[in-house]
């Protein structure tokens, strides 16, 4: 895989689905005044592109890789940190959260050429300034030289409950049992894949979020940032 190109301060937050990496990372980035990148959204955007173009991921891997290399993915956020993601200029923020994308994203993100293309884009973004990245392989592959690496954990039940409340409770598009089954299936695929599987870096700080509120998780991570002198103020 690509060599480490990170030269600025960086923080990696890895962990399984729905553990809160993105929410926590975004709040922490606001507190520190750093950039934030949700790498899961990038894999989701490519999966959406694959579905829109009706490419068969099993039979036509090379087309999937080409799409990953050529698609324009832009992640932006407004002043309050609300994220928008654009695929070739079109806002796909809501579309990438669909159940169809959830179902297929692990199959797209296990393709080596797709990962190389995404890691390259992520490492380029890491050059732009102080950054927090959330994903599965940030501490191990994308930014192995990150100043701080966190690996968040939580029981599947608590993660599924959070995901259901956040995304499906209002629409009823999925039942709690379906959300739990999908999370377990995705965790298994992400952890057992050959290339860059989900696993903590050897120097990652493990944080079990099962019995913590969102604020408590953020505070805990912020405390580590202060100890490592990455936070300039006591906000
Ligand atoms: O964090 P998320 O649930 O939005 O991620 C969606 C999928 O993308 C996840 O099932 C695995 C994949 N992913 C990955 O392989 N590597 C990353 N750095 C981030 C996400």
Please describe what this structure looks like.
This protein is of the alpha/beta class and 235 residues long. The protein has one domain: 3-Layer(aba) Sandwich (Rossmann fold). It contains nine helices and eight strands. It is globular and about 50 Å long. The mean pLDDT is 91. 2'-deoxycytidine-5'-monophosphate binds at residues 17, 39-40, 43-44, 105-106, 109, 135-137, 186, 190.
Summed up:
Helices cover 47% and strands 15% of the residues. It is of the alpha/beta class and 235 residues long.
Keywords:
binds 2'-deoxycytidine-5'-monophosphate; three-stranded antiparallel sheet; alpha/beta; single chain
Radius of gyration: 17 Å
CATH second-level architecture: 3-Layer(aba) Sandwich
Please give the order of strands in the largest beta sheet.
Answer: 2-6-1-7-8
Bound molecules: 2'-deoxycytidine-5'-monophosphate
| Overall morphology | globular
The major pleated sheet works out as:
5 strands, parallel
Mean pLDDT level: 91
Q: State which percent range the strand residues make up.
A: 15-25%
Tally of domains: 1
Q: What is the chain-wise order of helices and strands? A: EHEHHEEEHHEHEHHEH
Structural class based on helices, strands and sheet pairing: alpha/beta
CATH topology, by name, is: Rossmann fold
How many beta-strand runs? 8
Indicate the percent of residues in helices. Answer: 40-55%
Low-confidence stretches: none
- Name of the level-1 CATH class: Alpha Beta
Count helical runs.
9
Distance between the termini: 37 Å
CATH-level-4 superfamily name? P-loop containing nucleotide triphosphate hydrolases
